[in-house]
């Protein structure tokens, strides 16, 4: 079966900050850095590319029309707990901390974090 998502371009204001934040998060979720460009590749071939474009304007607001958040997976609850304990050191702010790990419902195990530019990522323990 072909992958469902080919790639995602993230436009950021500060490439160096985004590289640190996203690089850490994606590596924890099993993505590998592609040294040819500022991107990370999932084992299924999907990739995420980070860039600053002179065409962008305004700031990201996930509450406006567009993408609200990105959801990624990790293999275990232990890995999710490690990500939670390390996320602040890598520029991420935890959302819904008082309801961790069930902010999405009792049967849903996930960590919700927000980047320094306000991009929300939900990290879900995969099947």
TrEMBL record:
All copies of domain VOC, residue ranges: 4-126
SUPFAM superfamilies xref list: Glyoxalase/Bleomycin resistance protein/Dihydroxybiphenyl dioxygenase (SSF54593)
Pfam families named among the record's database cross-references: Glyoxalase_4 (PF13669)
Top-rank lineage group of the source organism: Bacteria
Annotated protein name in UniProt: VOC domain-containing protein
Species of provenance: Nocardioides flavus (ex Wang et al. 2016)
């Amino acid at each position: 079966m072909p992958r469902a998502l080919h790639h995602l371009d993230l436009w950021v204001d500060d490439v160096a900050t985004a590289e640190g934040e996203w690089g850490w998060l994606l590596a924890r979720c099993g993505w590998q850095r592609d040294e040819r460009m500022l991107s990370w590749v999932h084992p299924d071939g999907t990739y995420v590319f980070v860039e600053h474009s002179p065409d962008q304007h305004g700031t990201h607001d996930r509450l406006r029309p567009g993408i609200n958040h990105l959801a990624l997976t990790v293999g275990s609850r232990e890995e999710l707990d490690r990500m939670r304990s390390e996320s602040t050191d890598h520029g991420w702010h935890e959302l819904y901390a008082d309801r961790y790990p069930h902010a999405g419902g009792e049967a849903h195990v996930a960590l919700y974090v927000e980047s320094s530019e306000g991009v929300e990522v939900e990290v879900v323990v995969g099947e």
